[in-house]
Amino acid sequence: MSDEDGVSEAKEKIVYHYDRERRLANAPESVRNAYKKGYTPNKGFIRGLTANAGLKSVFITIIILSVAVVALTLFRDSPGSASAGGYDFKLKAFLYEESVYVTLRCAPAANAKKTAPSASAGSVPVTAVITALDRAGNVLETRELTDVLRGPELQLRAKLPDFEVSSVKAEVKIENTGVTITSSVDRK
Fold first, then answer.
1. How many C-beta neighbours within 10 Å does residue 107 have?
2. Three-state secondary structure along 10-62?
């Protein structure tokens, strides 16, 4: 008899018996209920999302990211906007056909209406120098706009020819305050 015959005899002697009833008798009650009732999914949307520790962490991560996106959207200053001297300024530029249309919005800041007495007392002169720039930063066109802020807001508008204008810069002077705003041209 060789070693190989001894190993094969030992393998033949090992017999496994699987007795489900005996195994279930020793199992916890939750396992016995799961065997009797079968798979029962969690009822409800939130319970399904938080059924185990992994799903709970994914659910909490989704909530945190959603709150962060909403907070950044609401509280971030958009490009092309600035505040100075109790006034808010917003510069927008877009391409339509062969021209670039520029709008500069000036309004007293919501929290600074008490600090800008001349806005409530009458009219405030506003001067803006609009400069069109190409991708290299070269000046393509310059326009000076002047008007008077009499109400809750003033919009200064300019139409510039499109010589591949990529951004627009506005140097605004109102009362004793000056601010420079830059905005890219929306070419969509």
1. 16
2. HHHHCCCCCCHHHHHHHCCHHHHHHHHHCCCCCCCHHHHHCCCHHHHHHHHHH
Statement: 81-184 belongs to CATH 2.60.120.10: no
CA–CA separation, 97 vs 85, rounded Å? 36
Question: 55-104, pLDDT tens digit by residue?
Answer: 999 999 999 999 999 998 888 777 888 888 889 999 999 999 999 999 99
Strand locations in 28-176 (E): 81-84, 87-96, 99-108, 124-133, 139-149, 154-161, 167-174
**CA pair distance 139, 150, nearest whole angstrom:** 32
Contact 92, 188 (CB under 8 A): no
Give the model's pLDDT for residue 1: 47
Q: For 130-166, write each residue's pLDDT tens digit.
A: 999 999 999 999 999 999 998 889 999 999 998 899 9
Comma-separated ranges of CATH 2.60.40.10 domains in the chain: 81-184
Strand partners of residue 107: 88
User: Cα–Cα distance between 167 and 182 in angstroms, integer?
Assistant: 7
Residue 117 has pLDDT above 50, yes or no: no
Given a cut of 70, whether residue 121 has pLDDT beyond it is no
Which strands make up the sheet holding 177-184, listed edge to edge? 139-149, 124-133, 167-174, 177-184
